[in-house]
C-alpha cells in the first residue's frame, strides 16, 4: 500500500508524484534509469543505487533549482521524505518563509536539509559532519549552489553531537535542530538480520550509506538519548530539538526517557513516502512553544471513515441483470439486480445482512460478519476439482477393476473403494482438525492477496467459500453476541453505472472488510467476464 496520500499536506509530491516520463525526456542522465513496466508505465528500479541517485539529483534540479553530487558509497536521500521533515519543522517553529536558525546534525554528503531549508525558507544552517568524504561533498554542494552565506558546514570529531558543535557559538540561539540518526547498531541489523519482522517483505529500495551514516553504538535509540543528554545541558539554547527515527519501536522508550527527565514539551509525528514509514520526535524546554497535534490519529480516523468502493460500468450491467434474473430476481432496475446478486453472495458466505432504509434509487444493507469465509476460495475450488478427478478412480475401484495395489492390501481394496472421495482427500491432506487449525492460522495472517481473485457467480442453492451448512447461520444480526465487523453496504446509481460502497461501522479489523469488498468486486466482475 502506497502512503503518498498521507504525506505532509504541504509536500509538493503528495497529490502530484514525479512524472518519470517527463523527467526522462528532459534529463538524459535520468532517462537511462527509466524502464517500461509490463503495464506500459515508466518505472525506476529503487534497488539500484545509480537509479536512486539519478532520481534525487533530478528532482532537486527540476523542482528546487539545486545541483548536487552524491557518491554512491554514501547515503542517498529521497526528496519527498526529506520534504516531510522540513515541513514538520516549519510547523514546530512556525517558520515558513521566515529567517530562522537551525542545526543539521550529520548533514551527509548531500547536505539536503540545509539546501532545502535555505532554498525554500531562507533559513540559516550550521551543518555538522564527522565523515571526511561527506564533509567534502557537502561543502562543494553548498558552494556550487551559491548558498555559503546561509549554510556553514563544519567538520567535527567522532561522537560529537551538539555540545562540542556549539562551543564557539555561545551567544547564538537556534530555533531548531534536525537529525537523521544512524538507524542500526551493527552490520547484522543493517542487513536486516534480527531487526526486521520475518513476515514483512524485504525493503523495496537499496540501503546505501557509509558506516557513520547508518550505524552507531546502540543504534538510533542510544544515539538520540545522547542528543537528549546534550539538550538537558543546553536547554533553551535551542527552541526545538528533533530527530527522525527509522523504527517505530524506538518512539515509546525515547518519549519515556523525556518524561523521566522532566522535559515539558514533547511532540511526535509520522513521515510517509511511497511504501516507507518514518517517525519523528521533538522536544522543547521553552514555555511559549506550541506543540502540534500528532497527525497519525487524524489520518487513522480519516482512513476509518473513508468508504471502500468500486464501480460496475454500464457495459457489464446487462449481463449482471441476466444473472440476477437467473436466481429469481424480477426487478428491472440495475441497482436492485446488483443488490440481489450481492445478497446471494453474502448468503453463500454466511455473512449476515438485512436491508435498511435509504434513498429512493438506492439499496442499503447492514452486514455483520461472524467468521471469515471469503479467504482462500481458490484453494477450496482446486480441492473440489481434485476430488472430481478422483471420481473415475473411485468408480473403478467400486466396480472391481484391477488396480496396482500390492497383494498385501488386496483384502482392504473393497473397503477403501467404498469410501467417498471426500474421505480419501482428507486422508491425503491431513485430519479435519488439522485443516481447521490451518484455516484459523491463515485467518490470523491473511492479507489482501489472500482474497479469492477467481470468484464466479453461482446458481441458487450453491455455496461459495462457505465452510459449513447454512442452517447453522444465526437468523438475525442483532442476535449475534460476537462478530468480526459490521459495515453498511450501499448500492447506488451513478449516471449509467452502479457504485457499491462499504462504510465501516464497528469491529476488530478493517482489513477484513477490505478483503470482503475485494471478494464481492471480483465475484461480480467474474460474472461479466464469463458471460
UniProtKB/TrEMBL annotation:
<dbReference type="Pfam" id="PF05971">
    <property type="entry name" value="Methyltransf_10"/>
</dbReference>
<comment type="similarity">
    <text>Belongs to the methyltransferase superfamily. METTL16/RlmF family.</text>
</comment>
<dbReference type="GO" id="GO:0009896">
    <property type="term" value="P:positive regulation of catabolic process"/>
</dbReference>
<dbReference type="GO" id="GO:0043488">
    <property type="term" value="P:regulation of mRNA stability"/>
</dbReference>
<keyword id="KW-0489">Methyltransferase</keyword>
<dbReference type="InterPro" id="IPR029063">
    <property type="entry name" value="SAM-dependent_MTases_sf"/>
</dbReference>
<feature type="compositionally biased region" description="Basic and acidic residues">
    <location>
        <begin position="435"/>
        <end position="448"/>
    </location>
</feature>
<feature type="binding site">
    <location>
        <position position="82"/>
    </location>
    <ligand>
        <name>S-adenosyl-L-methionine</name>
    </ligand>
</feature>
<dbReference type="GO" id="GO:0005634">
    <property type="term" value="C:nucleus"/>
</dbReference>
<feature type="compositionally biased region" description="Polar residues">
    <location>
        <begin position="455"/>
        <end position="465"/>
    </location>
</feature>
<keyword id="KW-0539">Nucleus</keyword>
<dbReference type="GO" id="GO:0006397">
    <property type="term" value="P:mRNA processing"/>
</dbReference>
<keyword id="KW-0808">Transferase</keyword>
<dbReference type="GO" id="GO:0120048">
    <property type="term" value="F:U6 snRNA (adenine-(43)-N(6))-methyltransferase activity"/>
</dbReference>
<feature type="binding site">
    <location>
        <position position="129"/>
    </location>
    <ligand>
        <name>S-adenosyl-L-methionine</name>
    </ligand>
</feature>
<dbReference type="GO" id="GO:0070475">
    <property type="term" value="P:rRNA base methylation"/>
</dbReference>
<dbReference type="GO" id="GO:0003723">
    <property type="term" value="F:RNA binding"/>
</dbReference>
<dbReference type="GO" id="GO:0005737">
    <property type="term" value="C:cytoplasm"/>
</dbReference>
<feature type="binding site">
    <location>
        <position position="106"/>
    </location>
    <ligand>
        <name>S-adenosyl-L-methionine</name>
    </ligand>
</feature>
<dbReference type="InterPro" id="IPR017182">
    <property type="entry name" value="METTL16/PsiM"/>
</dbReference>
<protein>
    <recommendedName>
        <fullName>U6 small nuclear RNA (adenine-(43)-N(6))-methyltransferase</fullName>
        <ecNumber>2.1.1.-</ecNumber>
    </recommendedName>
</protein>
<keyword id="KW-0963">Cytoplasm</keyword>
<feature type="binding site">
    <location>
        <position position="180"/>
    </location>
    <ligand>
        <name>S-adenosyl-L-methionine</name>
    </ligand>
</feature>
<dbReference type="GO" id="GO:0001734">
    <property type="term" value="F:mRNA m(6)A methyltransferase activity"/>
</dbReference>
<feature type="compositionally biased region" description="Low complexity">
    <location>
        <begin position="398"/>
        <end position="411"/>
    </location>
</feature>
<feature type="region of interest" description="Disordered">
    <location>
        <begin position="381"/>
        <end position="473"/>
    </location>
</feature>
<feature type="compositionally biased region" description="Basic and acidic residues">
    <location>
        <begin position="382"/>
        <end position="393"/>
    </location>
</feature>
<keyword id="KW-0949">S-adenosyl-L-methionine</keyword>
<dbReference type="InterPro" id="IPR010286">
    <property type="entry name" value="METTL16/RlmF"/>
</dbReference>
<comment type="function">
    <text>RNA N6-methyltransferase that methylates adenosine residues at the N(6) position of a subset of RNAs and is involved in S-adenosyl-L-methionine homeostasis by regulating expression of MAT2A transcripts. Able to N6-methylate a subset of mRNAs and U6 small nuclear RNAs (U6 snRNAs). In contrast to the METTL3-METTL14 heterodimer, only able to methylate a limited number of RNAs: requires both a 5'UACAGAGAA-3' nonamer sequence and a specific RNA structure.</text>
</comment>
<dbReference type="GO" id="GO:0051254">
    <property type="term" value="P:positive regulation of RNA metabolic process"/>
</dbReference>
<keyword id="KW-0694">RNA-binding</keyword>
